[in-house]
Amino acid sequence: MILEGMLSPRINGVAGRLSRQQILEALINPGKELSPGFGMVSIDLKNGQSVSGILQGENDITIAVKRGNVGDTVIRKEDVLKRTNSPSSMPNMSQLLTKREIRDLVSYLATLKEDEMVRQQEAKTNVHGE
Q1: Which of 94, 90, 92, 112 minimizes the C-alpha distance to 102?
Q2: Confidence (pLDDT) at 64
Q3: d(CA 73, CA 45)
Q4: What mean pLDDT is reported for the chain?
Q5: Which whole-number Å values give the CA distances from 67 to 40, 42, 95, 110, in the listed order?
Q6: pLDDT by residue (tens digit) across 4-40?
Q7: What are phi and psi of 71, to 5 degrees?
Q8: With helix as H, strand as E and coil as C, how does the chain read?
Q9: Distance between the two ends of the chain, CA-based, in angstroms?
Q10: Strand 40-45 versus strand 50-58 pairing type
Q11: Dihedral, CA atoms, 107, 31, 113, 72, nearest 10 degrees?
Q12: Would you state the pLDDT for residue 127?
């Protein structure tokens, strides 16, 4: 059986989205910040209700959660009593790699500033005049 879809955020262009420090932190503490669309979150609201689903995004004011096949549920942060992020499925790399290997991995990931797929699509558009 072949599963389609992405199991983790793309690393293409990661250095354009994260600093070296943020890349390092994501490797050694992968559950600290959830990438939209990849982490499960459970939220207890002050009104007694609960919302659980896939974190779709958040800003200073709201949190968007995908629950099943319905559209995103947008929750005001001021209405949140308790928030629990489910553990990341990505392992802590400090338990698998040496400090030198982690340093080398961060150095490599820091070179990935451009999303290759986006660049290729832009190149096709320029060639075909679309």
Answers
A1: 94
A2: 93
A3: 13
A4: 83
A5: 10, 11, 33, 34
A6: 445 566 778 888 888 999 999 989 988 777 777 778 8
A7: -65, 175
A8: CCCCCCCCCCCCCHHHHCCHHHHHHHHHCCCCCCCCCCCEEEEEECCCCEEEEEEEEECCCEEEEECCCCCEEEEEHHHEEEEEECCCCCCCHHHCCCHHHHHHHHHHHCCCCCCHHHHHHHHHHHHHCC
A9: 37
A10: antiparallel
A11: 180
A12: 54
pLDDT tens, 74-97? 999 999 999 998 877 788 899 999
62 bridge partner residues:
76
Higher pLDDT, 88 or 125: 88
How far is Cα 74 from Cα 65, in angstroms, rounded to an integer? 6
Does residue 130 register a pLDDT over 70?
no
CA neighbours within 13 Å on the CB side: how many for 104? 5
**Spatial distance between the Cα atoms of 54 and 113, rounded to a whole number of angstroms:** 27
| Closest to 81 measured CA to CA, from 118, 45, 33 | 45
Cα separation, 15 vs 94, in Å, equals 20
